[in-house]
Amino acid sequence: MNKILIQLFFLLNFVPSDSISEQVITRQGQVSFFSYTSVENIEAKNNQVLSIIDLSKQEIAISMLMNAFVFKKSLMHEHFNESYIESDLYPKATFKGNFIDFDPNIEGSQTKFVKGTLTIRNISKEMEIKTNIEKIDGKFIITGDFELTVKDFEIKIPPILRPNIAKVISVTFRFEYQPYEE
Question: Disulfide-capable partner of 21 in 47, 56, 124, 145 (CB 3.0 to 4.6 Å)?
Answer without folding.
Answer: 56
